[in-house]
Amino acid sequence: MKRSRSYEAKVALLEREKAYPVHEAIELLKKTSTAKFPETAEAAIMLGINPSQHQVRGTCALPHGTGKAVRVLVFARGEKVREAEAAGADYAGGEELAEKIQKEGWLEFERVVATPDMMSVVGKLGKILGPRGLMPSPKTNTVTMDVAAAVRELKAGMIEFRADRAGIVHAIFGKTDFAAEALQENLIALIRAVLERKPEGVRGRYIQRVFISATMGPGIRVDEADLLAAAQKKG
Prior knowledge:
Blueprint: H1 5-11, H2 22-31, E1 40-47, E2 57-61, E3 72-75, H3 79-87, E4 91-93, H4 95-104, E5 111-114, H5 119-122, H6 126-129, H7 147-156, E6 158-162, E7 168-175, H8 180-196, E8 207-214, E9 220-222, H9 224-231
Parallel strand pairs: 3-4, 3-5
Antiparallel strand pairs: 1-7, 1-8, 2-6, 8-9
Helix pairs in contact: 2-8, 3-7, 8-9
C-alpha cells in the first residue's frame, strides 16, 4: 500500500523499534497526526493470554472523555424510560424500538443500555446488534436497573473494551486535539482497567506490548514498563 508523502514524513519522526516513555509517545501521537481535523487516539494492547481460554472484557471511564458525542439507546419500560430520558438518553422505549431496528434497519445510536426485564426483547436483536458490538451486557454495566447512571457514564466517556481472537484489545482514548496530559491520563486509566480484568491462571507477562496512534497516523510503541509504573501509582 502506497503511503502519502505526509504520512511518510510523520513516520520519519519515529525511531524504528524504539519503545517510548509514555509522555514522549503521547507527544509523538499528536505530532504524527496526518489529517486536517482532530483524529481519534487509538491504543492496541497485546495481551499474554490464550484467547480460546481467557476472556478479557470490561469498561473504562476515561477521565477526560472520548471527545465524541455518544447517542445512547435505552430499552426499558414505564418509570425507567422517564429516568433514562431525564439522564440524557437520546432514545428510550421498548418493543417499538426493537421493531424499528428489525424492520427498518434503524441504527442511529452508538451505545445500548437495557433493564434486565427487557433482555428477552433485546435478545432477539442479537444478530443485528452483536456483530456491531452494540449488545448490552452485565459485564459492561449496560444491563442494569440504574439506567440513569449508565446513561450518564456513557455520555461522560465510558468506553467498552474486549480482547479479540488474537488477544489484542483495541480501544480509543481521546482525540488528537486533547492536551497531552489529558491523553496520558486517559491512556493510563485504560491500562488500569485492562489490568483489573486480568483472568485468573494467566502466567508470565500479561500486558506484552502497547502501541498508540492517531487514526490515520503510524503506530508508536509505548514503553510498557513506564506505562505500567504510571498505571500502578496511587491516586
